[in-house]
Design goal:
Layout (H helix, E strand, L loop, with lengths): L1 H7 L5 H5 L15 E2 L11 H10 L13 H11 L6 E4 L2 H12 L5 E6 L4 H9 L2 E6 L17 E5 L11 H10 L3 E5 L23 E6 L12 E4 L2 H10 L7 H11 L2 H24 L3 E2 L6 E5 L6 H9 L2 E2 L11 E5 L3 H14 L6
Parallel strand pairs: 1-11, 3-4, 3-5, 5-6, 6-7
Antiparallel strand pairs: 2-8, 7-8, 9-10, 10-12
Helix pairs in contact: 3-9, 4-9, 5-6, 10-12
Bound molecules: pyridoxal-5'-phosphate (PLP).
Length: 362
Amino acid sequence: MWLKFIVMLPYFRTNIAAMAGYVPGEQPRDDGTIKLNTNENPYPPSPSVLAALRKATNRSLRLYPEPLGDSLRSVAAAVYGVKPENIIAGNGSDELLSILTRCFVGPNDRVAFSTPTYSLYDTLIAIQQGERVTIDYPPDYSLPEALAAQNAALTFLCNPNSPSGTLVSLKEIEKLARSVSGVLVVDEAYVDFAESEGASSLPLIRAYPNLVVLRSFSKAFSLAGMRIGLGFASEEIIFGMMKVKDSYNLDRLSTVAATAALQDMPWMARNVRRIQRSRKSLTAGLKKMGYHVYPSQANFVMAQKRGRSLKEVYEALKQKQILVRYFDIPRLQDCLRITVGTPQEIKSLLQEMRSIDGKPAA
Ligand SMILES: Cc1ncc(COP(=O)(O)O)c(C=O)c1O
């Protein structure tokens, strides 16, 4: 089997042959698993999204979708207080990240970010043959000042960061946007879960033409299965990104789902409030068991037992059909990233973790 792949390697560009490829979290097929590994929303999408999808599932599917997603862009513009020309829609924010690296990163161009963070950045840089420039986050995951001074064509900031869940303030992001030499991308896949209303960098796009802000419908809007993301930036940057995207990058149903989701913001806000409450109880439960839990503004938490590998805990939970995320890299071997599920899912998780630790139920 492997031989077949090795024989084909010479046909690939050297960098593609050499790279490992992004490894997504496990997606089990059975419904019995408590799935706390890829930060999906435990609550369903708005009923009005489902109704709009049912209505759109008709013979019009024979037609191509809107090439630029204009109807979605105009609804999003009204919701987020920008012009449609400031928005690009993508097949998930992952596609927008890919478009951005293709726009701004050629061979040997520097791409800077702090680690550990979303590992897809590595893959996208490797595809473009860019130069990966990383600055370690300090133990408290505050923004390293050195990030601004890397002379990078592109700088990524995941905010809130994954896997730590920690948030960098708007003031620091503004300073970063002012100081970087190239484009700054703030990946806000999780920002809807932040406690403070003013956590998003979106208002900064007016003042900083080198700033791109990415949002995802996979998390707060419960639409991971539809693959929708939005990018916000100056008209000039959006214009350039449009040249690089696939002609019809968003299908008809995704466009309908995203538009309907934006027209029912209270549904999203209600689920966010539930998740924020559960985040508190999950954090408290883990702390009671002796874990260090990083202050999370996302729909997951990072729990740590300093100096002790948590691989066995991850594996023991998996045996019990509870999936959490374990990253087998030196900095994260004593950590687990756990998605905030329903109160019942959290109860089951904590119960299992206590029994794995050999402690009686609280
Ligand atoms: C930090 C971060 N950015 C972007 C994405 C991609 O989101 P989407 O589903 O919109 O492609 C994820 C997905 O987990 C993520 O964790």
